[in-house]
Amino acid sequence: MKLTEAQLKQFDEEGWIFLPECFSLEEIAVLRGEAETIYNQQRPEVWREKSGAPRTAFAAHTYNEAFGILGRHPRLVEPLEQLFGEKVYMHQFKVNAKAKFTGDVWQWHQDYGTWARDDGMPEPRAMNISVFLDEVFPFNGPLMLIPKSHKHGVLEAGHDTSTTSYPLWTLDNDAVERLVNQGGLVAPTGKPGGVLMFHGNLVHGSSGNITPFPRKIVYLTLNAVSNHIRKPTREEWIAHQDFTPIECCPDDALLQYARAQATAAE
Ligand code: SIN
Ligand code: MN
Hints:
Blueprint: H1 5-14, E1 16-19, H2 25-39, E2 46-48, E3 54-58, H3 60-63, H4 65-70, H5 74-84, E4 88-96, E5 106-109, H6 111-119, E6 126-132, E7 144-145, E8 158-160, E9 168-170, H7 173-183, E10 195-199, E11 204-206, E12 217-224, H8 253-265
Antiparallel strand pairs: 1-10, 2-3, 3-4, 4-12, 5-11, 6-10, 6-12, 7-11, 8-9
Helix pairs in contact: 2-8
The structure holds succinic acid and manganese (II) ion.
């Protein structure tokens, strides 16, 4: 799948693009079920909120077949190959839960800030492309983005190891207010199957979820192969050190997998 000129222009100017209904409900349903199975497992890759609710499942593409297919999906991989002009590899893969009633905040941050400081990634030639597994509403903790904030390079940040269970390089309130005054705020919402991609330097965050509606989103962090990380400090299953270029699966691979699973269950 290739991005159009208009989408490339929006990405350059605003730092993000939303593609509604990129995956069908049939494709998404199988992933949603697999996510719940994974959250119920006790394994080091599944991180929990302070409350004990699941927060994120790292590296699910390495131990779950359906997420393995998603991690090679042309609708996600090809747009980033197009943007970076080269093959990409998986730097990080996570299935964020934002559980009903208990999903915690993600403080304001830039992704590349963490990849540079913690992983030794040379340039912001990596980015998150995410897939909505549940419907994302204005009220269940949607991702909030500050348009145009990717134009400011890596901003000063402090390492917050206490607010949530997840250590993060976060921005201070004055910086966020200044950027919002310039670029505004958006919170893309939509049905399961929507895809959101955003620049590695785009400032973003999300608030807690006190509604009865879970908000699961999968994040593929794809990095240009030549931009592979140089100084890893985190676990291999958080910041991968296998820089093998991704070879895409067929476009209907997830659908075929979902249908095979449904037939097997009959
Ligand atoms: C992230 O920024 O890495 C995750 C934010 C979210 O899932 O709300
Ligand atoms: Mn982030």
